[in-house]
């Protein structure tokens, strides 16, 4: 009885495989983009829009983290590798053969639990908090409440950017770590006295964004580099892109996506940037 | 004459069917073993490259307390001490097993010995249902309910081994309970009848006969629960705080092997030390699974001898 | 202490502890349902998800979860059955069998993230299946096999040896005894094992993140050509399941109503597992009736 059923099921499975093999060939094409989980919603939305406009072309977008994106594009296993950081900054990657396509800019801001009594800090104070020299909000004129530092996982693009521009050469204290921006926001929202950092798009009413040296974390301030904690969103290809990959990257950079989708998701269109920054952090004005 | 001889020397239809069945079932088991071996090879070969390719000493890895992959210490060796995670993993595993075991055994006794009818009707479906709750949901309930509760009772941030223990306790309960039920059910009926016939009370029968006879099975259940707790990642990661430092109390943020493993895997590049050392953590997990296994086997054998 | 008194106390304690378990579990379920049920509507269950706007549903994820579950079961159930039959009926008590059992148990205690990464490097990258249902089903098979094999073996072992002897005495071969006598008798146990396994598969996220993928391309439910990417039947398309969707929303989701969607999706997941349990139970009873009456 059971065996018969299993046999039947197996036959069905076999038929399905045969059907897969013999089904009529459809004129479809797809590419895979893997990497930064922060970039996934953006690329996914753009991919859907692209597929709607170009029938039969599919953009398959997966997360997995910037490290995964870079190693997979380096190995040539995918068509596009999404990353929040420069390939050069990551060890073990042959950055020379990768071609960088910067599609957007994202600002990163420190966030705290509402009710600490502090809304503005200097860059030095922020550094001292993350290196453990300041441990109570009272030292910054706030409430007498111990500071809990919450970091993103080491190697995360957001953390790398934050540490590059806030900590410089110094090292963060060993602290709590979380893997994703969503969890970070939730913990900061619910745990009194906690400080962490997220991309602008994750800031909601539940948490309070700090201004630094009285500069507010806004897209305008990022565009002219008054707010220095920001990073590019890279889409790397292995060699010059061709075919569908090239077409899709062009689409990402088209005015259509840049001025609507990218802004809707709280990213900054690459064309709005007044300055350009290289791996070492040197800036040059955009002509 | 020849025909008869042929009939005897030819395999009968039955013999053919028999060897066919035997072969099929053997192929299945061989396939599974092959998969296991290839996973073992895959994990371990990556795990040992920390020591052979990147030349980290095993002692620094197992007993070092500083976990900052990518940075080197004063002596020029990478800071990849995994002790904080090892302690964290053992902590949550042992504590959650201590919490879960009595409850699971009690529930199993209830379902098998005391009231099989209500047990089957209420407890069993609920237990089976709970297996299906994804760990990420457990994690979020932990983050929303358990962590704030711990914070308001004990102070601190609420993240730590205690919160992780409570979440894991609920998570491994269904596994341990359903296996404990199997273990109790496997005890032959006549054991109970003999004991009751000799005038023992129900509890005496349960305690002195059924539980004793089921000990190896119960231990397997607990070890399975412990193995699940040891390997659980997503839920623990949300409530333990993931601070790679030696836990000083049950309510300070800590980390486990799995929480660090899951958290960092996507952010590291294959083939680098930062990535290899994560596979070394996975290798520890494997070795632990093996040790758990050997332990049950040993206890099972001892139990069998004492009978 | 008086044994009668001890009996009463012990039984009381057991009642209390069982009560606590039911209480914890019931409040857990109620909590999930109470948060999620208000979000569930026909539209929520059928519409595709949105990546950053309000009003996304879980239609495709729900379909993917069931499809993946069926495929995984198709691959793993026969394998586990064969393996369990070997272990229970053919294996001799020697070191090889011991080794096999140890191997299976080690596999079962592997963290699912390791299984997922193994699947990623082997199925997705090495075998070039890409992020697909097929890769996901294979990874889930690895994840599922040990427990399923074990529970089926346990179910087979509960059948008394007398049944086997009776079969053999009637001149049946060992294999025939297994298929005609032991399997039908063990069927209810096997089905329970499969339900438990199905529940685990349904809720698994970590093993799928890197294999079946985290995106659910729009499906065209009128397209049944299995080679087309929009066809629901295609096993080479990426397929985010319900559990993965919950994980994704909670970790990096930017939709404004993420909390509600995740609460709703969790409730749907629980309800699906519940429904699944009920149906399998009903089928199990029916099958047993058919066998015992025949």
Descriptive overview:
The complex is a heterotrimer of chains A (287), B (307) and C (294). By secondary structure, chain A is of the alpha/beta class. Chain A has helices at residues 2-22, 40-53, 66-74, 123-130, 157-167, 181-190, 219-223, 243-253, 255-264, and strands at residues 29-35, 57-64, 80-83, 98-112, 120-121, 148-152, 176-178, 194-199, 208-209, 211-212, 230-238, 268-269, 275-277, 283-285. Chain A has two domains: 2-105 and 231-285, Periplasmic binding protein-like II (D-Maltodextrin-Binding Protein, domain 2, 3-Layer(aba) Sandwich); 107-223, Periplasmic binding protein-like II (D-Maltodextrin-Binding Protein, domain 2, 3-Layer(aba) Sandwich), CATH 3.40.190. Chain A is 34% helix and 25% strand. In chain A, the strands form three sheets. In chain A, strands 1, 2, 3, 4, 6, 7, 8, 9, 11 and 12 form a ten-stranded mixed beta sheet that branches. In chain A, strands 5-10 form a two-stranded parallel sheet. The model of chain A has no long low-confidence stretch (mean pLDDT 85). With 307 residues, chain B is an all-alpha fold. Chain B has two domains: 1-41; 83-306, MetI-like (MetI-like fold). Chain B contains twelve helices and two strands; from the N terminus they run H-H-H-E-E-H-H-H-H-H-H-H-H-H. Chain B is globular, with a radius of gyration of 25 Å. Chain C folds into two domains: 1-39; 42-293, MetI-like fold. Chain C is built from eleven helices and no strands. Chain C has helices spanning 3-36, 42-46, 59-90, 95-108, 112-126, 133-157, 161-169, 174-203, 206-209, 242-252, 258-293. In chain C, helix 1 packs across helix 11 (258-293) and helix 3 runs antiparallel to helix 8 (174-203). Chain C starts with a helix and ends with a helix. The mean pLDDT of chain C is 83. At the B-C interface, helix 2, helix 4, helix 5, helix 6 and helix 7 of B face helix 1, helix 3, helix 4, helix 5 and helix 6 of C.
């Amino acid at each position: 009885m059971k065996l018969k059923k299993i046999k039947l099921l197996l036959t069905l499975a076999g038929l399905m495989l045969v059907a897969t093999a013999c089904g009529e060939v459809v004129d479809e094409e797809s590419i895979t983009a893997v990497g930064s989980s922060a970039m996934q919603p953006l690329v996914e939305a753009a991919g859907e829009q692209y597929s709607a406009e170009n029938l039969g072309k599919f953009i398959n977008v997966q997360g997995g983290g910037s490290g995964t994106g870079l190693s997979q594009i380096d190995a040539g296993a995918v068509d596009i590798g999404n990353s929040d950081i420069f390939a050069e900054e990551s060890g073990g990657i042959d950055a020379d053969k990768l071609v960088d396509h910067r599609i957007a800019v994202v600002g990163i801001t420190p966030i705290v639990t509402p009710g600490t009594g502090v809304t503005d800090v200097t860059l030095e104070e922020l550094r001292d908090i993350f290196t453990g020299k300041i441990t109570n909000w009272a030292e910054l004129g706030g409430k007498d409440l111990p500071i809990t530092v919450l970091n993103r996982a080491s190697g995360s693009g957001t953390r790398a950017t934050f540490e590059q521009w806030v900590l410089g050469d110094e090292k963060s204290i060993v602290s709590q770590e979380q893997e994703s921006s969503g969890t970070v926001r939730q913990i900061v929202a619910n745990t009194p006295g906690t400080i962490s950092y997220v991309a602008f798009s994750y800031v909601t009413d539940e948490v309070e964004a700090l201004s630094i040296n009285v500069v507010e974390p806004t897209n305008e301030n990022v565009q002219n580099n008054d707010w220095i904690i920001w990073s590019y969103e890279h889409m790397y290809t292995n060699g010059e892109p061709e075919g569908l990959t090239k077409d899709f990257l062009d689409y990402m950079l088209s005015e259509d996506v840049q001025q609507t989708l990218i802004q809707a998701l709280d990213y900054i269109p690459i064309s709005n940037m007044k300055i350009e920054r290289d791996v070492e952090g040197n800036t040059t004005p955009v002509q | 004459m020849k025909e008869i001889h042929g009939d005897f020397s030819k395999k009968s239809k039955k013999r053919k069917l028999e060897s066919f069945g035997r072969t099929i079932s053997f192929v299945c088991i061989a396939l599974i073993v092959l998969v296991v071996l290839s996973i073992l090879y895959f994990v371990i070969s990556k795990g040992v490259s920390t020591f052979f390719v990147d030349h980290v000493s095993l002692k620094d890895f197992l007993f070092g307390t500083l976990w900052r992959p990518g940075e080197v210490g004063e002596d020029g060796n990478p800071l990849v001490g995994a002790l904080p995670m090892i302690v964290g993993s053992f902590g949550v595993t042992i504590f959650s097993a201590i919490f879960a075991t009595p409850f699971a055994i009690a529930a199993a006794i209830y379902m098998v010995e005391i009231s099989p009818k209500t047990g089957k009707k209420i407890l069993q479906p609920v237990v089976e249902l709970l297996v299906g709750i994804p760990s990420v949901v457990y994690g979020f309930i932990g983050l929303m309910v358990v962590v704030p509760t711990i914070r308001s009772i004990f102070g601190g941030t609420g993240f730590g081994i205690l919160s992780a223990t409570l979440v894991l306790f609920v998570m491994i309960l269904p596994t341990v309970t359903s296996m404990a039920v199997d273990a109790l059910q496997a005890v032959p009926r006549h054991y109970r009848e003999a004991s009751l016939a000799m005038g023992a009370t129900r509890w005496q029968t349960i305690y002195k006969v059924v539980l004793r006879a089921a000990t190896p099975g119960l231990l397997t259940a607990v070890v399975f629960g412990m193995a699940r707790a040891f390997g659980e990642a997503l839920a623990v990661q949300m409530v333990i705080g993931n601070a790679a430092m030696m836990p000083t109390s049950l309510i300070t943020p800590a980390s486990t092997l799995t929480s660090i493993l899951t958290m960092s895997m996507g952010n590291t590049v294959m083939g680098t030390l930062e990535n290899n050392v994560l596979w070394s953590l996975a290798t520890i997990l494997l070795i632990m699974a093996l040790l758990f296994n050997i332990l049950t086997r040993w206890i099972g054998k001892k139990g069998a001898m004492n009978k | 202490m008086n044994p009668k008194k001890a009996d009463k106390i012990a039984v009381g304690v057991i009642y209390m502890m069982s009560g606590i378990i039911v209480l914890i579990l019931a409040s857990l379920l109620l909590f999930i349902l109470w948060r999620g049920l208000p979000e569930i509507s026909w539209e929520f269950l059928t519409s595709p998800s949105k990546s950053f706007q309000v009003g996304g549903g879980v239609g495709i994820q729900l379909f993917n979860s069931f499809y993946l579950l069926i495929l995984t079961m198709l691959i793993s159930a026969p394998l586990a059955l064969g393996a369990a039959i070997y272990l229970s009926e053919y294996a001799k008590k020697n070191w090889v069998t011991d080794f096999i059992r140890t191997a299976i148990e080690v596999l079962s205690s592997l963290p699912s993230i390791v299984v997922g990464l193994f699947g990623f490097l082997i199925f997705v990258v090495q075998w070039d299946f890409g992020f697909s249902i097929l890769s996901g089903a294979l990874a889930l098979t690895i994840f599922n096999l040990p427990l399923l094999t074990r529970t089926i073996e346990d179910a087979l072992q509960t059948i008394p040896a007398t049944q086997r002897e009776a079969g053999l005495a009637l001149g049946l071969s060992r294999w025939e005894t297994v298929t005609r006598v032991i399997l039908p008798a063990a069927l209810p146990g096997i089905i329970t094992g499969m339900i438990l396994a199905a529940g685990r598969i349904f809720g698994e996220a970590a093993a799928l993140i890197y294999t079946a993928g985290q995106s659910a391309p729009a499906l065209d439910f009128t397209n049944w050509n299995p080679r087309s990417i929009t066809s629901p039947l295609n096993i080479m398309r990426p397929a985010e399941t319900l559990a993965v969707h919950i994980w994704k929303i909670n970790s990096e989701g930017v939709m404004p109503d993420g909390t509600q969607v995740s609460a709703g999706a969790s409730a749907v997941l629980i309800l699906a597992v519940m429904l699944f349990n009920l149906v399998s139970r009903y089928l199990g009873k029916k099958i047993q009736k058919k066998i015992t009456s025949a």
